[in-house]
Amino acid sequence: MNAIAQPAALHRLADLLRLPPYQAYSYSYPHKTAYRPLQPAQSLAQLWADEPRDALFLYLHIPFCSYRCGFCNLFALARPEPAKVAAYLQQMEHQLRATAAALGEHRFVRFALGGGTPTYLDTEQLRRVFDLVERHAAIDLQAVPAGIEVSPETVDLEKLRLCRERGIDRVSMGIQSFSDAEVRTLVRPQQRAVVEQAIAAIREAGIATMNLDLIYGIAGQTRESFLASIDSALAHSPEELYLYPLYVRPLTGLGRIEAKNGARGGFALQAEPVDDRLALYEAGRERLLAAGYSQVSMRMFRAPHAPELSGPVYCCQSDGMVGIGCGARSYTSALHYSSEYGVARRSVAEILDHYLARDEASFASADYGIRLSADDRRRRHAIQSLLIRPGLDRADYRRHFSADCLDDLPQLRELFELGLAVADDNLIELTQAGLARADTIGPWLTSAQIAERMHDYRLG
C-alpha cells in the first residue's frame, strides 16, 4: 500500500513554476484517488433523474492486456484466465442492461472502447461486445464518433474490419517509441516490425482516424532519437499524434524498479532530479507544427488532413458519461462514481473478482465515488476547458454558473501575469508557454478538499 503524495492546492503559481513542469496529468477531475465508498449507495435512477440524458458518452472498459507495460498505472490485468474474460463479458452485459433501465429514456452520442486493451479480445468476443451495446443502449454506432484503443501485438485485419463494420471510426494505438531499445527500457516487449504491420492493418481496414501515442523522457532517450520516432510516425501520416511525458508512478513496473533503487516516486508536486522532458517536448512540438499539425492540448496534435469532427454535439464539461465495466467511471453533474481503483496485480485481481461476483440488481446503484461541491464543479469546468484549445469560454461558464470565472477563481489572473494565458471578453486561452506547463496548471487548480482526499488515499 502506498500513499499518494499531496498535489499542491491554493499555492501561488509563480512558486510552482520553479519546480519541474511535469507534476500531474489532469485528464479528469477529481482524480479517482479522491473517490471513496458511498454510504448509503446511491440509486442510479435517482442520480440521473434530473440530468440531461440526450447527449451522453458511453465508455466500455476492457481491463485485459497481453502484458503490463512498465509505465502503466491503468486499471488492467495482464494475461487473465480465458474463463475470467468470458465471465467479464457476461457481467458487462448485466451492468449495461441494469444501467440502461435506470437511465430510462436516453441517447448516447459518443462511444469508446478502452482499457487495458480492447483488442486483447478475439474477433468473436469483440463482436459480442458490439452486440450487447446495440441490444441494451440507445446508440447508433454508425452515426456517432466511436473509438477503440489497441496495442500493436493485438491488431489484426479481421478485428479491425469488424470494428469498422460496426461503426468504429477512430483507432488509438500506443507505440511509445519506434526504437526497440527504448521500448525495452519501458518494460514493453514490442518490436518495430510489429508496429509497422499494425499500422498497415489500420490503414487497410479503412478506419478514418488513426492516432499514435509517443512517450518522451525515457531513460537513454535523446532529442535525436525522440525526433526520429516522430519522423517515423509522420511517415504514416497519422490523423492525430499524442506526445506523452513519461511519469513513473507507484506500483508500476518502473515504479517498483525505482523503489528498489531507493528513488522516491509518486503523484506529487515536488522537486525531481535533472529533467530533460521539457526540452524534448519543445523539440517534438516544433517538429509537428512544422509538419502542419495543429496543437490542441499539451499532448494532442491534429493533422491538416484529419476529418472534421461530426455527429451530435457533446460537451465534456457538462454532458454526462456512463462507464460500463470494472474500472470505468461515470459522471453526473454532481456525483462521479466507479468501481474501486488499483494498480498492483493482486489489487486489480481482487477488485475484478468483486465485480464478477455482483448480481445484476446491484448495478442499479453506485457505491463508490465522490460528490462534487459547487466549488469543485466550477474547478472541473475550468480545468477541462482551459487545458485544451480553444480554451475557457467565459460566456459558457456564465451560462452554467451565473458568474464570471475570474470572480469564482481569481487565481486564474496569475496566468496572465506570468504570460501563460491571454484573455478577451469571450475566451481565456493558454499561450504556448501555458500549454507547456499544463501539468503544473491542472494540479494548481485542484481544491484543498480534493488534494487532501488524494493525499490520504492508499493505493493497492
What topology emerges from the helices and strands here?
Elements: E1 2-3, H1 13-16, E2 36-43, H2 44-49, E3 56-62, E4 64-65, E5 77-78, H3 82-103, E6 108-115, H4 123-136, E7 146-150, H5 157-165, E8 170-176, H6 180-185, H7 192-205, E9 209-216, H8 223-234, E10 240-245, H9 253-260, H10 277-290, E11 294-295, E12 300-302, E13 321-324, E14 329-331, E15 335-338, H11 345-356, E16 365-371, H12 374-386, E17 392-393, H13 394-401, H14 405-408, H15 413-417, E18 421-423, E19 427-430, H16 432-436, H17 438-444, H18 448-456, E20 458-459
Parallel strand pairs: 3-6, 3-13, 4-5, 6-7, 7-8, 8-9, 9-10
Antiparallel strand pairs: 1-20, 2-16, 10-12, 11-12, 14-15, 15-16, 17-19, 18-19
Quaternary state, please?
A: single chain
Total helices: the number is 18
Q: Kindly report the average pLDDT value.
A: 91
Strand content: 15-25%
Helix percentage range? 25-40%
Question: Which of globular, elongated, flat, extended, rod-shaped describes the shape?
Answer: globular
Query: Could you give the order of strands across the largest sheet?
Result: 11-12-10-9-8-7-6-3-13
Q: Major beta sheet, specifics?
A: 9 strands, mixed
Reading off the top of the CATH hierarchy, the class of the largest domain is best stated as Alpha Beta
- Unreliable residue runs: 1-10, 264-273
CATH topology of the largest domain: Transcription Regulator spoIIAA
CATH architecture of the largest domain: 2-Layer Sandwich
Distance N to C terminus: 5 Å
Question: Quick one: how many beta strands?
Answer: 20
Structural class of the helix and strand makeup? alpha/beta
Domain module tally: 2
Radius of gyration: 21 Å
